[in-house]
Write a structure and sequence with these properties.
The chain has 203 residues and is mainly alpha-helical. Helix content is 75%, strand content 0%.
Length: 203
Amino acid sequence: MTSSAVAPTDRSEFRNVLAGGTVVGIVTGVSVVAFIVLSRIIPHGMLRDLLESVLVIAAGVAVSLLPGQRAAARTVEGVAGAAAIGLWGTVVFMAIDIVLLRPFKAYPWTWDAIGGGSTWWYLPVWWMLGTFLAWMGGLLTAARSRRGAVPMVQLAIPVVVGCVAVTITSKLLGNPAPLPAQAGAAYTLTLAALALFANARKA
């Protein structure tokens, strides 16, 4: 007599959300620290912009697609679980930021100046962005995995390729924004477009 184990799907239980979100938050914190280190040890120029952009894209892949993988998203339940994992990840990063990064003055004064001198302006923005990325990543995971699990690398490749194409186009059109910021925006737009398109095809 043989039996086959079916991989669990749509895991939105509270314990999984906390565990997955904690991993996402730690990955975010490590990525931010790596970005800060790069910005301080490499002189300003194209090399630093490229390395920072690669780091931004890699972090984007992690925080957007890890939640969907952790939640094994296949239906609305799993997509909601992925979004919840992303939200908790932003809360975990907030704790890392407050306890470790802020006391050591990790950010330049211009970062706070964007919010009129407030050190809290970006946290609600990050809560929304982190949840949105995980939500879109969950949608993409669910749509692409309707016939079985799809490896995260396979999900990431078209998003990264699209992101790079949009970033290069934006740069060639003379966008004055820093290259890492353009890469981050391009990743978000590409992910959302691919997720919505895949979800429309699935419907």
